[in-house]
Every structure is written in structure tokens, then in C-alpha cells.
From TrEMBL:
Full protein name: poly(A)-specific ribonuclease
Organism: Anisodus tanguticus
Residue span, Endonuclease/exonuclease/phosphatase domain: 255-587
Keyword Metal-binding (UniProt): yes
Principal location listed in the UniProt entry: cytoplasm
Molecular-function annotations in GO: metal ion binding; poly(A)-specific ribonuclease activity; RNA binding
Recorded catalytic activity of this chain's protein: Exonucleolytic cleavage of poly(A) to 5'-AMP
GO cellular component: cytoplasm; nucleus
Enzyme class of the recorded protein, top EC level: hydrolase
Role description: Acts as a catalytic component of the CCR4-NOT core complex, which in the nucleus seems to be a general transcription factor, and in the cytoplasm the major mRNA deadenylase involved in mRNA turnover.
Length: 602
């Protein structure tokens, strides 16, 4: 008969909203091993599998730290309780945790005070006492005081039937399939998974069932939402009113984000990130929440695995009215599973844009053409080995469906061309990186020459401000004495005068640096590098803090209205680098709001 050899969970810590699918290893009567599901409708060797999930409710309630959700809380902020802030946000695991979080935590109090301004002196007295003496912190957290966090402010509804009670624990059945997705009701509780082999004829268990217990379920960490900042310095309330504001103003938003492919998100590279926060089942939900929350009209993602695009991002974003397009990297260098090859994915909202045309750039093909034209036969193999890196670009031409106010010919189609790329080339191959960027720009020049069309160039260029690729993008040419040009063993960059283009491209985030100093922009300007007019970083790991990501736009036809605020290194690296429990990529997302300039008559 079949027997269960081993059961284990994909993650040590279950998170609300993230699927749990245990790995079940079975032994057949001939001693061979299998791991696939065996339903009652298709038994093997006269047996099938059943699964059950239980929520283990202990008589002793446990509160969860709001900052470190994998830790048990030991103190509670009474200021939050009296201000009627959601109780889950009031818990902390240690005095140091509370102290470190105070700069951000106090904003909860300030917002509560401004939102509910009916308590008069009582509210003043509360916050005054909290700030001056610290007596607003309850450091003797008991089980009865912590119970509120377990329900997240709502009444918990458990199944009527109690499956089993053992000492101080009660087990409630919450699922009967192999996969279970923890809910808010599970926060603070241990889950138990049970797998049993059932006789297909008698429907009775064969042998003992196999069980495994999880750690306590934690809520999905939620970072403070990033604001949209007008380049005039005015903060724009993003999430609630953005759709109506954009519709009425005739502007549109573009998001660019390297989401970190699961194939690269290894414990060896990101040992500082909790293993549960690095798992794809967690990261995909966290990334989706973040991306959908920005409500961008056009979304350009890099490092999207082929299987994740087909099975997750395309169907999930379709639910939010996005049409999806994808270009997988070529696989001449890649030697792994073809389904895990990553690429560039571009999404656009169907109610805002219509698809007109798509172009795909494969730099491997361009490398073949280049070597045929310029490289002697004896060096072709060496040249291709250097140039072929499987990188691609996805170029999409879209037509706006919204009314673009200020256009002097409202009956004319408003098109926009969006390029999305990831120039993933080793740092030492400066010539290859520059050649790929130049190849992309020459292709975009041809599109621009065929139509009066605004250009957007988004992506991860793996090139820092001041490098030759950045200079080419931002200034349209490169100083012949630029040090990056010294690396050119194949002679593909000579003469340097050919490294130019006519597209009037400007980096969107340079708008923060170029605007007059006003109060609303002062904080953002401090997060910019004054020598390059680019963000101080868009990629922040333990070993690498640089800016490889950009949104470039054609300044003759588009203007920047607002930008998603930049994050500061201090807030990102409070406990760790990226990725983290709050932010699921090692890059940060960039988002810009644009307006089309009125066309000049020719």
C-alpha cells in the first residue's frame, strides 16, 4: 500500500494571504517514491490521499509585534489604544523596537488626532503625557490585553464543530484541500496540516495520518504607502482619488519596476532577508499588492519569469483591467528550465489606452548582424561569446483613450511609444552594455522618425549616473574621452562620434533636482544626487547601493507633472537591506505622471 514518507512546509512562518502547499513524499508498494497528488477520483494502488488543515487555538492568546511580525509582542502603546488606532499597530516586541519605530509610529497618533478632533483637552493630555514621560507604553502585556490583535479589530468566526480539544488547545478544521491560504482569523495561531492515506473501497484510513505544525501565523507586513509628489512641491493624495484626477486632467502615469526574479532570489545572495519573506509565494502577493496600489496606467516590469507571467501576473492584473504583453529573454546563454527564463512585461489599462503596435528587440540577433559586418571570421566566435547576453527590449505603441486637454488638434490620435528593457550585462563588459543601449536608441529613433510620437524609455539599465550608457540616454552623446570607452576589445564603439542619437530624452526624476526649492520638494531633493540630478539609489542591497533604474521621456512632447516619492536609505535599512519583509524586490519602483504637450502645427 501507499505510505507517507515525509511532509514538510515550504516556509517556516505562514503569512496571511500567502498560500501554503506542503510537500508530501509517498512510497509505493514497490518502494519507489512519488510526490504528486492522488485524488479520490484517480486512486493509485487502491488508495488516495485526504488533507485537513486545523487552526490550533490556545487558551493563552499571543499578540504579534507590529514592526517585526515574526516576533511576539511584549509591550503595547496605550496612546494607540486611547486614540482608537487599530490595535494590531500598537504592539512591539521590545523597548528598542518601539524606540526605533517611534519616528514613524508617532505619525499614527498625529493622523488620529487630526482625523478625530472632538476630544479636546483629553487628546492633548494624552499625546502630551505620551511624549514627555513615556507612560503611554504598557510594558506588562498580558494575554487578555493582547487578544485584540488576534482578531485584527473584528469578531473572529470559528467553525461550529470543535474537532478536538487537548489540554489547553482546541483544534478547529479550517480547510480540506492540500493548499491553504491563512486569513486574518489565523493571525497569532498555529496551523496543523494532516495528510492521510485512505483505502479506496472501505474509505477507511490506512495507518496513522502524518501531521506537521506551523509557526504562528503573522499578518502580511505593510510598508507606509509612498506618496505622489507634484514637481511643484504639492503632495497629491494618491490612492483614493488618483483615477478621477487623472481622468479629468488628461495626464497618465507610468511605473517601472525590477521585481527581482525568483530564480535570483536565493538565500545565499540575500541571507539578511527572512526565508519566509524571500519565498515566491509571499513575494508575489506582496509585489502584486504594491503594483496594483500604484494604479499606474502603464506598468513596465523587469525580471518577470515566463511561468510567473503566464500563471500569475497576467491573470491577476487582468482582474484589474490591465492588458499584458511579454517578451522573454532569449536562451542561448541560459542553461536552466526554459519556463524560468525572465523577461520584460508591459501592462496598460484598457480603459486608458489601446494597443497599436508591438516591436521586439533581441540583442542576440543584433550581435549576429554586428559580427557579420565588422568582425573578422577568425574572431567571430570570441566576439559572439562577449556580445550574446540574451537581453531583450519590448517596445509598445499605445493610443490614448482619454481627453488630452490643451492639445490644439483634439481630433488627432494621441500615441505614445513605451520601451521596456533590462540591460543585464556584467559590470566589466562596459562596451557590451553601451552597445546594447545604443542599439535600442537607434531603433527608437526609427520609430520616432515614422510618426510624431512621444517616447518613454523605462527599465533597469545596470548603469549608474555618469556612466557612458547614462550619458548617451540623458545627453544624446558621449564625451570621446569618457573612461568607459577605453574598454572596447572588438572595436564596436569606434568612432565615438557615432555614439549619439537625436531623441530629446530627459530623466523623469531629474525634475526633483531641477525645480525651484520649495517646502514640499526639499525632502525629495535631499534624496537626489546633486552632481547627477538622479536619485541617490534605486537598488539597495547589503553590498550594493546605486541607481541603475530610470524612466526617460521625450521632453519636446511630454512634461512631468508628479513623481512617486523616493525612499531614504535610513527607512529602507532600519533592520536590513532589500529585499525585506516590507519590500519584496531589491529595487524600488519608479513612477511618473506625464502630460502631453500641445502639438505645434507644421
Amino acid at each position: 500500500m501507499l505510505s507517507v514518507v515525509r511532509v514538510h512546509l515550504p516556509s517556516d512562518i505562514p503569512i496571511v494571504g500567502c498560500e501554503l502547499t506542503p510537500y508530501v513524499l509517498l512510497r509505493r508498494p514497490d518502494t519507489s517514491l512519488i510526490s504528486h497528488h492522488i485524488p479520490q477520483s484517480a486512486p493509485i494502488h487502491g488508495s488516495f490521499l485526504t488533507y485537513k488543515w486545523y487552526r490550533v487555538q490556545s487558551d493563552r492568546k499571543v499578540a504579534i509585534c507590529s514592526v517585526h511580525p515574526s516576533e511576539q509582542a511584549t509591550l503595547q502603546c496605550l496612546g494607540c489604544v486611547k486614540a482608537k488606532i487599530p490595535v494590531a499597530k500598537s504592539y512591539h516586541c521590545s523597548p528598542k523596537c518601539f524606540s526605533d519605530a517611534w519616528r514613524h509610529h508617532r505619525l499614527l497618533h498625529e493622523r488620529a488626532a487630526s482625523a478625530v478632533n472632538e476630544n479636546g483637552n483629553e487628546e492633548e493630555e494624552l499625546f502630551g503625557r505620551f511624549n514627555s514621560t513615556g507612560s503611554g507604553v504598557n510594558t506588562s502585556l498580558t494575554s487578555s490585553q493582547s487578544s485584540g490583535s488576534l482578531t485584527n479589530g473584528t469578531t473572529t468566526l470559528y467553525p461550529v464543530a470543535v474537532t478536538q480539544r487537548n489540554g489547553g488547545e482546541t483544534w478547529f478544521e479550517v480547510g480540506h484541500s492540500k493548499t491553504y491560504t491563512p486569513s486574518a482569523d489565523d493571525i497569532g495561531h498555529v496551523l496543523k496540516f494532516e495528510c492521510a492515506v485512505i483505502d479506496a473501497e472501505t474509505k477507511l484510513p490506512l495507518g496513522h495520518s502524518s501531521t506537521v505544525l506551523t509557526s504562528r501565523v503573522i499578518p502580511a507586513p505593510s510598508p507606509t504607502p509612498r506618496r505622489l509628489i507634484s514637481v511643484s512641491g504639492v503632495e497629491i493624495p494618491v490612492h483614493l482619488d488618483l483615477d478621477s484626477r487623472l481622468s479629468s486632467s488628461g495626464t497618465f502615469t507610468v511605473l517601472s519596476y525590477n521585481i527581482l526574479s525568483d530564480a535570483y532570489a536565493t538565500n545565499e545572495l540575500y541571507s539578511y532577508c527572512p526565508s519566509w519573506a524571500l519565498s515566491w509565494t509571499y513575494r508575489r502577493q506582496n509585489l502584486l499588492r504594491e503594483i496594483v496600489g500604484y494604479r499606474a496606467d502603464i506598468v513596465c516590469l523587469q525580471e518577470v519569469q515566463s511561468d510567473h507571467f503566464e500563471e500569475f501576473f497576467a491573470p491577476e492584473l487582468d482582474k484589474h483591467s490591465y492588458q499584458a504583453m511579454f517578451k522573454r529573454k532569449t536562451a542561448e546563454v541560459f542553461s536552466g528550465n526554459i519556463n524560468t527564463v525572465d523577461g520584460c512585461a508591459t501592462f496598460f489599462r484598457r480603459d486608458r489606452f489601446a494597443h497599436v503596435k508591438k516591436y521586439e528587440v533581441e540583442f542576440n540577433k543584433a550581435a549576429q548582424s554586428l559580427t557579420e559586418a565588422l568582425v573578422p571570421s577568425a574572431q567571430k566566435k570570441t566576439a559572439l561569446s562577449r556580445l550574446v547576453k540574451d537581453n531583450v527590449a519590448l517596445i509598445v505603441v499605445l493610443e490614448a483613450k482619454f481627453n488630452n486637454q490643451g492639445v490644439d488638434n483634439p481630433g488627432k490620435r494621441q500615441l505614445v511609444c513605451v520601451a521596456n528593457t533590462h540591460v543585464n550585462v556584467p559590470q566589466e563588459l562596459k562596451d557590451v552594455k553601451l552597445w546594447q543601449v545604443h542599439t535600442l536608441l537607434k531603433g527608437l529613433e526609427k520609430i520616432a522618425a515614422s510618426a510624431d510620437i512621444p517616447m518613454l524609455v523605462c527599465g533597469d539599465f545596470n548603469s549608474v549616473p555618469g556612466s557612458a550608457p547614462h550619458a548617451l540616454l540623458a545627453m544624446g552623446k558621449i564625451d570621446p574621452m569618457h573612461p568607459d570607452l577605453a574598454v572596447d576589445p572588438l572595436g564596436i564603439l569606434r568612432p565615438a562620434t557615432k555614439l549619439m542619437h537625436q531623441l530629446p530624452l530627459v530623466s523623469a526624476y531629474s525634475s526633483f533636482a531641477r525645480m525651484p526649492v520649495v517646502l514640499g520638494l526639499e525632502q525629495q531633493r535631499r534624496r537626489m544626487d546633486p552632481s547627477t540630478n538622479e536619485p541617490l539609489f534605486t537598488n539597495c542591497t547589503r553590498d550594493f547601493i546605486e541607481t541603475p533604474d530610470y524612466i526617460f521621456y521625450s521632453a519636446d512632447s511630454l512634461t512631468v507633472e508628479s513623481l512617486l516619492e523616493l525612499l531614504d536609505e535610513e527607512s529602507l535599512r532600519k533592520d536590513t537591506a532589500l529585499p525585506s519583509a516590507e519590500w519584496s524586490s531589491d529595487h524600488i519602483a519608479l513612477l511618473a505622471e506625464f502630460r502631453c504637450k500641445p502639438r505645434t502645427r507644421r
